[in-house]
């Protein structure tokens, strides 16, 4: 990706609904540090804003697999997404 892996740039893309660019940055951030649950939450949030709910759930499930301490929080988010909410 040509874009910097920067949270502010990512947020600017989300705010301007350039979700493909935001997803590309969030995926790169996640792949650079695959055990970082925060990066996975960012990626899931971008998917959710892009109305890609099943992708958001898949990322949260991956976060739970990588960090069992995230299980309760992750399952709560998944339940909310499946209920049609944006946690």
Q: How would you describe this protein?
A:
There is one protein chain. The protein has five helices and no strands. It has 87 residues and is mainly alpha-helical. The mean pLDDT is 92. The longest helix is centred in the N-terminal third of the chain and has 14 residues, at 19-32.
Provide a concise account of the structure shown.
The chain is built from 5 helices and no strands. The chain is mostly helical.
Detail the topology: elements first, then pairings.
Elements: H1 7-15, H2 19-32, H3 37-49, H4 53-66, H5 71-82
Features of this protein?
87 residues, globular
Residue stretches low in confidence (pLDDT < 50, at least 5 long) are: none
Shape, please?
A: globular
Beginning-to-end CA distance, first to last residue: 29 Å
Largest sheet: none
Helix content: over 70%
Radius of gyration: 12 Å
Give the rounded overall mean pLDDT.
Answer: 92
The count of strands amounts to 0
Give the SSE string: HHHHH
DSSP strand content: under 5%
- Number of distinct helices: 5
Helix/sheet category? mainly alpha
């Amino acid at each position: 990706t040509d874009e910097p892996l920067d949270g502010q740039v990512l947020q600017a893309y989300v705010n301007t609904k350039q979700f493909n660019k935001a997803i590309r940055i969030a995926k790169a951030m996640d792949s650079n540090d695959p055990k970082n649950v925060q990066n996975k939450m960012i990626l899931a949030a971008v998917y959710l804003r892009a109305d890609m709910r099943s992708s958001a759930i898949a990322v949260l499930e991956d976060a739970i697999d990588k960090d069992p301490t995230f299980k309760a929080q992750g399952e709560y988010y998944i339940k909310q997404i499946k209920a049609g909410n944006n946690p």
